[in-house]
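Design job #97: recover the sequence.
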């Protein structure tokens, strides 16, 4: 039986890959989930144990957890990292896209938590780390369903923390701001054509904002995947982890600002950044 065993989702690139690599370097036995074969090969090359895992597929989630338990006999940590950002006005977004967003960012995390809880409860120990975002604490135009998924993950984590603390299970939320990874490229690509056309200016400002944040001047404030991985390891290896870890200067600043504003002030702040539909 290996003393420290982690199952990490979303390890194809970015935070997930960096965390898998850092955990291996810290002498964890890491089962790294990813969807494509090329990523699985890269994960094996860094010493992780690759697992084909699409968190939207119940059978793959069940098989991943079963494999870890069959091979190791225990599970120290589940890191629900898989996720992506869907962007676009609410009226312009298909329900199929909404379902995929929620399945990936929220339902998949719930499914895996339910699968690992019997083992963690029996062994009276374990950590479930849910990768949220500063977007789980505040919301920006065009990101309704991404924010909904992360707000849901935050609420789920708070409730889960209360329900399982008595079994020795810890629940931690990590809230990064912008991270230099493929997340921004995926987000920009997710902005659909504006139909009806009244949302065209908003969509253009969403693209401009994402480009500035991830590729332009504001990208200097982005964290690296390795920055987030370090915080995750700090939480996973702490005897008394905090319930929430905010990562990055932009996240710290914006969460602090939002806490001081009422809704009208926040809407006014956003009007300086985004084209408001219906206003010439």
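Job complete. Output follows.
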């Amino acid at each position: 039986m290996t003393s420290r065993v982690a199952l990490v989702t979303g390890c194809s690139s970015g935070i997930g890959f960096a965390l898998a690599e850092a955990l291996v370097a810290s002498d964890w036995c890491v089962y790294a989930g990813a969807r494509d074969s090329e990523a699985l090969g890269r994960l094996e090359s860094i010493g992780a144990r690759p697992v084909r895992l699409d968190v939207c597929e119940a059978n793959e989630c069940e098989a991943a957890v079963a494999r870890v338990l069959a091979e190791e006999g225990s599970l120290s940590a589940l890191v629900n990292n898989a996720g992506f950002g869907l962007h676009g006005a609410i009226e312009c977004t298909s329900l199929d896209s909404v379902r995929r967003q929620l399945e990936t960012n929220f339902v998949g995390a719930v499914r895996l938590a339910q699968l690992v809880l019997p083992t963690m409860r029996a062994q009276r120990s374990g950590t479930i780390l849910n990768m949220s975002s500063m977007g789980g604490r505040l919301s920006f135009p065009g990101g309704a369903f991404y924010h909904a998924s992360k707000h849901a993950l935050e609420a789920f984590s708070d409730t889960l923390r209360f329900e399982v603390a008595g079994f020795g299970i810890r629940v931690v939320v990590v809230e990064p701001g912008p991270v230099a990874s493929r997340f921004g490229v995926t987000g920009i690509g997710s902005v659909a054509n504006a139909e009806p056309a009244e949302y065209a200016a908003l969509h253009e400002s969403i693209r401009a904002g994402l480009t500035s944040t991830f590729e332009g001047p504001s990208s200097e404030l982005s964290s690296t995947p390795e920055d987030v991985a370090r915080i995750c390891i700090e939480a996973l290896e702490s005897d008394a982890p905090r319930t929430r870890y905010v990562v990055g200067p932009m996240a710290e600043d914006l969460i602090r600002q939002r806490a001081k504003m009422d809704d009208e002030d926040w809407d006014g702040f956003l009007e300086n950044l985004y084209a408001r539909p219906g206003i010439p």
